[in-house]
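Technical annex, item 7. During the second reporting period the consortium partners agreed on a shared format for inverse folding records so that results from different sites could be compared directly. Each record opens with the tokenized structure and is followed by the designed sequence. A conforming record, contributed by the partner at site C, is shown below for reference.
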């Protein structure tokens, strides 16, 4: 069996990375994230559509009373 590792993906030229280490006493949480500007825009559009649809549902529910 070979000890070869998988090749890493070529990073996007505009990729953004973040790392976070949290320590609570003896417990440690390590988190990493990476995204591109297009990913941030996509998340913004999704959140906006969820909030808009929620506002429409709340308004419709209030009119029925």
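Designed sequence (site C submission):
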């Amino acid at each position: 069996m070979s000890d070869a590792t998988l090749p890493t993906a070529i990073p996007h030229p505009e990729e953004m990375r973040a790392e976070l280490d949290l320590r609570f006493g003896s417990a440690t949480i390590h988190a990493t994230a990476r995204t591109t500007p297009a990913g941030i825009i996509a998340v913004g559009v999704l959140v906006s559509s969820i909030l808009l649809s929620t506002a429409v549902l709340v308004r419709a529910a209030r009119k029925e009373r």
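The helical segments are 37-63. The radius of gyration is 21 Å. All partners now use this format for quarterly exchanges.
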